[in-house]
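Ticket #4471: structure export looks truncated?
Reporter: QA, pipeline team
Priority: medium

Steps to reproduce: submit the single chain below to the structure queue and open the exported record.
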Amino acid sequence: MRLGMGRKKIRIGDVLIAAGAITEEQLQEALAHQKETGGKLGNTLVELGFISQEMLITLLTKQLDIEYIELKGAKIEEKVLHMIPESMVTKYKVVPVEIDPDNPNILKLAMSDPMDINAIDDVGLITNLQVEPMLATEEQINDAIGKYYGSAQAMEAAELYRQEQANSLGADEDDGTNEEIDNSPIVLLVKQIIEGGVRQRASDIHIEALETGVRVRYRIDGALKQVMSYDLSILAGITARIKIIGGMDIAEKRKPQDGRITIMVDRREYDVRVSILPTVFGEKTVMRLTSKDGLTKPKSALGFDAEQEKVFDGILSNPHGIILVTGPTGSGKSTTLYTSLSELNKEDVNIITVEDPVEANILGINQVQVNNKADMTFAAALRSILRQDPDIIMIGEIRDSETAGIAVQAAITGHLVVSTLHTNSAASTITRLIDMGIESYIAGDAVVGVIAQRLVRRLCTTCKQPRLIEDEERAQLGVPEDEEDVIIYEPVGCPLCNDTGYSGRIGVYEMMPVSRSLQAIIASGATADVIEKQALKEGMLTLKMGAAKHVLNGITSISEMKKIVHSTVTVDVDMDV
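Actual output as written to the record:
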């Protein structure tokens, strides 16, 4: 008998104890934890490490005789989504999936708690259908609610706000209670926009004033995508709300402003950096989203191959000197820096960072925030830090010759310095330091390794399509003429990747450890080309070669490779793919 047809209330905890998956003590601990943090019991048990997600799914589907659904790849029809009001969907954490093809009286319902009798009864009453529960993870249900109902929810809030404005022009905003403010349409709208961005894996949210309306776009895997548009009358409300929660001046509309918000979404903490810029049609807001634990990835998650990992470890093992990570904005430099620090973070070393701003907190590391208003610049902070007996110093970015000079001095006097620069290649990073006023012989002595990097989008593994390589692509990918039937992949698009053809990103790296011979060449004041030639001779792979490897391994497409490498010079180094 299906669960929806029975009347007996069954609890997840009882099912798991009966199956011998958890003990009574673990259940009680999980229930106590759940009481404090909220969320579903199944999720809490997984979070506490009492049971794996896979085991939980297997046991529940088997014990309750229900199906598991991977909501991420499901295509749900519009008419099915409208069968249940959004308030009920968010209250019970359920998503309607489909009407049973074999029986039009049965509605299949994805639930994070398929034993929630109240949810099944309420959905059955409102749809006048028999409900057949299906198990889905809470995370996937939250993502689906954001994806399918988010825009509608936001549009509804926007419309409510417009009506409110029309009804109470000139009314005093401070009349209501805090509860009313928390539930006011504009507050809900801004919350919805930020949560939607988090759930769709956006790195940035753009809210911009156009001549005719307001456009909201998310940057997902490096590409901007429009998700909502509103009437222009709502812009002032959205901007004012963001200024309030971002700690900015609500009355100042003529100058650019910066702020910061910390928000909890699905029990994870996110740091939101806000930038507001006055434009001709109104103020444009850009919010950069960072998960507090998203930057500290394990080394294996960066996308190094075995050879690169060896080189990376070799660079990090230097007892002193400067390690530079370079690339344009949004190329993953901060993630590589934080990963390096996590690797170096041992009990016997004192690590101090100077950042603007501190992007993620790492246990055991002393992090210092730059504050220009209080004359706490990178250079001023560095001078103080050198008196704090550091072993390793991380500088968020070398922006001027003063900071560069102190960093080099610190490296030469026995410290390991890790920092970033905005340059296009590993070799040009050295010449940039020299342009900043560092003598070439000192640069050669101080720099121990340079990592230039970019990010390319990963092809969706579900829908990518194979094709044979074309003749003109052989030169770009460094494939010999006589090698036949070389296959590369193209993006297609499916529900799993939001019809983009891509899902997630992977790093492309150019790693240049500074050897003795390279040191001598740098010290002689050589150009970037000469430095690069020597590095290639010593086995360095350029960004182009790294991207070509990813294309030939089916990880990314040739169009993604072209975005990061514009030159069409033949790759003249053999690649073991």
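Status: closed, not a bug. The export was complete when the record was re-opened. Leaving a note from the reviewer for reference: The CA atoms of residues 23 and 351 lie 42 Å apart.
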